[in-house]
Amino acid sequence: MTTSPSGSTLKEAEDFLAANPDIEAFDILLHDSNGIGRGKIIRRHELMSVYKGGRHLPISILGLDIVGEDVHETGLIWDQGDGDLRAWPIPGTLKRLHNTTPPRGEMFMSMYELDGTPMTSDPRHALVRQVEALAAEGLYASAAFELEFFLLSNDRDGNGKVTPAADVVDGRHSAKTEVYSVDQLHGMLPLFNDIYKGAEVAGITAETMISEYAPGQYELTLHYRNDPLQAADDLMRLKRIVRAQARAHGVTACFMAKPIEDYAGSGMHFHVSLRDKDDNNVFTEEVEGQWTDNIKHALGGLRETMGECMLVWAPHANSWRRFSSQSYAPVSPTWGVNNRSVALRIPAGSKVARRIEHRPSGVDANPYLVAATILAGIRHGLNNKIDPGAETTGNGYDEGADAPAIPVDWRSAIAAAKSSAFLKDALGEDLHRTFTAIKAAEFARVNRTVTEVEYDLYMHRV
Question: What domains does the chain contain, in order, with CATH numbers?
Fold first, then answer.
């Protein structure tokens, strides 16, 4: 047996198999730069060998674009002969899957060099580096993601547009916004019950479900974790649960940032606070509303580096359709208190639970990269004592003229990310090269594609 560099143990697999004698197969998943789980389905008898010696996977698996095509500019394909590296189980991620026939499980993996050192184009390792960097400074992050998503019909309408899914209870259909409607939630209860059960089986504390600000849009919150890695794992796993249970109920779960052009898109807000070695929240003020230097400097670092990180938080062509005035998606690096028009929000509530809600990320972003860049921005602000500037107290869509510039489209975000020394440090040089090369390749793919709207506007007129 080879010692696992991830810290996984044979006992974890032995105990799981003993407790789940009916499971026949496992999805083993390694998440790439786009957050797509790539890997294999293994049979039950193969699980122990993965824990004993890892599983060989091609290095190119981390150099794929959104559709699984090689991106040669990453340097992970023929430059290295597309050789195998070794993926190892991430401790605590071996879970049973709900509502599968025959019963199956899943496990997350992380990539390592053959000598056991972390493979530096693996997104999860980037988050590990930032967590360890904070710990070296005596700080520990607690975090949670919010998951927004659409439930859509499997079929398009006569114009090729997506439509909200009909209720799974009785087929009733609404094309209205229905924000915060509890009765609207009732129509999807069998599906939501399966999502909650799937989360429970996976050890995830999924909490409040609401009907969001668009037809067919919902939000599901997750319980705070004292480990950002666990928070990102939860988000990755919950997306798989929602997608699988929606499919089982005959509808499509959609995690595009903006699937319906006339309504708000889907965000992936990240809530984060910092603890010291004595488990005290260092963002908590002594007097309500008199903000600590720690939270102000953290806001300053996030605000100053926002432009360089926008590609991580809005990584796809569709991501940029989400940003528009009065759409609950921030358009400038503003901060404020109890204000949903800003990018960096201090939520109302107990000062003991004081935290920053980071709002720019779309639900289509990779949570490992999102968390890594946010923690890096917070560290940058704390270490350099950066002033966040004036608080936005009104409409954040009308303010922020004095804020640092941020990209306004995908192309400029790619350029900003490529040239960013901060992002290179936050992700690591190899992952920075990999991620930006993949985004540039995807931009080229989209840019050369002739769309239906172009035919509609120009084919018979110019």
Answer: 10-119 (3.10.20.70), 131-453 (3.30.590.10)
